[in-house]
Amino acid sequence: MNTQTHCLEVWGDLACFSRPEMKVERYSYPIITPSAARGIFDAIYFKKDYNFYWQIERIELIHSPKYIALRRNEVKDKASATEIQKWMSGTKNITPLWADGTSAELGTDQKGRTQRQTMALKNVRYRLYARITCRDDKANLNAMNAQFERRAAQGKCFYQPFFGCREFPAFFELVKSPPEKPPIDIDLDLGWMLYDVFDLHKPNHNQASPAISVFHAQLKSGVLEVPDYSSKAVHKLEGTNHVA
Question: Which pTM was predicted?
């Protein structure tokens, strides 16, 4: 099997990789999480009929983490798939989800909006290393690796990659030669970090029920080594492989 490792350099103005223990307020980890990094690779190359997932191997911190405090309006309501289908078929008039008032102010049964405090990151830049991991032996890895590199080199993506929140777009560049700029020299013990929110061993995990996993993240000389999802270093909920 061709276990080729690919490298992307990614950057953006803002990012937020929310720590789950902070509850309703958004407080970012100082570095991108493996699940967010996987999402960037998925945005460039992913096919549901190809039974694989992106295994993040290493994350390099290129810019020192800097925080910025933001206050954002968030919509409390969510449009159901049934409602959207009725709008599309014309059997029901489109009802907007208002984000500029409370239910009393709007005079509707909508919950309106709420303000959330966000401690986000600014001016972020990382190098992400990942490989394609197949769930079976039927895939043509050589072809898949070539397709990814061709798309990444041309800047193609199925949707705009983002840093934790869709309003924080991420930009990317394929790194083919050894990078000239080393990671920043910083050591951090990040404690328990979110690894992923799905069971990566199951196909079509983006439609599957959430399956939270965590790992002990340690940043050494600006490099975060990410264990394989199958590793015992990744602590999973009961019912998945290698229970913590």
Answer: 0.83
